[in-house]
Amino acid sequence: MTTQEQVIQLEAIAKTYRMGKVEVHALRGVTLSIARGEMVAIMGPSGSGKSTLMNILGCLDTPTSGRYLLDSEEVGQLGDDTLAAIRSRKIGFVFQTYNLLPRATALANVELPMLYGDGKNRSRRAKEALTRVGLADRMAHKPTELSGGQQQRVGIARALVKNPSILLADEPTGNLDSASSMEIMSLLKQLNEEEGLTVIVVTHEPDIAAHTRRVIAMLDGQVVRDQPVVHEAKVPSAMAGRSTP
Q1: Spatial separation of the C-alpha atoms in residues 183 and 153, rounded to whole Å
Q2: How far apart are CA 54 and CA 186, in angstroms?
Q3: C-alpha to C-alpha distances, 97 to 36, 119, 157, 187, nearest whole angstrom
Q4: Are 15 and 64 in contact (CB under 8 A)?
C-alpha cells in the first residue's frame, strides 16, 4: 500500500488555559496525523476539546506544548503575522453561522477574502468558486434571498476562492434541516473525492460524521477513538430486487 503524504502531524499537543488560579486542560497530549486528500470528522461532546483542536489545526491558536507540523513546517511557535499568512494561503474555513454580509450579494461575499493581498481577477475567481458549489445562477442574490443550504454554499465558495489545500468546516450543517445537511455533506465529499481537497469536519452528529472516511473522537481533551468509517457497499443494479433462492 502506498504511504500517503501527511499534511498534518500533531505530536503530544497540549493546551492549558489559566482562569484566575485555575488551570483548564483543554487538550492533553493529542497525537494524530491527517494525510493529504483525507476527509476526516472530529467528534466529541461539549467540553471534549474538539473546538480547541480545531483552532490549533486552523492556526487560530497555538498549543501550550507539543509539536504541530503543517506541510512539514512547525507552526506551533510562529508569530501572529506568520500564522495569518498560513491561514490565508493554506486553509479555508466554513462556519456554522455562515458569517455572510447581509447586504452584499453572494458574489461580493465570496470576493471578501481577496480584498486584501492578492486581489487580481477577483470577480472571475469568485464566479468560478460559486460555480463550483452549484450557485452560478444565484451570484446576484443577497443572503436573505437564499435558503440556508444556499447560504452555506456561499460560505463554502468563499472558503474555496483562494484555492486552499485544506477545508476546515466547523459544524457546517448545524443550522440546516436534514435535507440541506445531506446536500452540504455531498458537496464536501465531492470536493474531497473529485478535487483532492483535504476536508476536516468538526461535528457532534454521528450522521454527519458518517459521510467522512475517518472519525477522530475526542473526550476530556484526548483522542479516545480514531478509526475509518465503514461504508456499506452498494448493491449492483442487476442484483437489485432479486431474492435469495
Answers
A1: 10
A2: 22
A3: 27, 25, 15, 18
A4: yes
Cα 124 to Cα 110: distance, rounded to the nearest angstrom? 11
Domain assignment present for residue 164? The answer is: yes
Domain assignment present for 178: yes
Quote the pLDDT of residue 115.
Answer: 84
Model confidence at 83: pLDDT above 70: yes
Number of folded domains that form the chain? 1
Contact 62, 77 (CB under 8 A): yes
Whether pLDDT at 57 is above 90: yes
Does residue 221 register a pLDDT over 90? yes
Question: 226: which strand partners?
Answer: 216
For all residues of the chain together, what is the average pLDDT?
A: 90
Phi, psi angles (nearest 5°) of residue 220: 50, 40
* Confidence bin at 128 (pLDDT 50/70/90): very high
Residue 40's identity, in one-letter code, is V
Nearest one of 93, 118, 115, 117 to 104, comparing CA atoms: 115
**What are the φ/ψ torsions at residue 56 (nearest 5 degrees)?**
-70, -45
* Rounded mean pLDDT, 106-118: 87
In a domain, 13, yes or no: no
Would you give the DSSP letter of residue 75? -
What backbone phi and psi angles, to 5 degrees, belong to 174?
-60, -25
Cell numbers given for 52: 480547541
Q: Indicate which CATH number applies to the domain containing 52.
A: 3.40.50.300
DSSP state of 57: H
Angle, nearest 10°, between helix axes 148-160 and 178-195? 20
Whether 216 is covered by a domain: the verdict is: yes
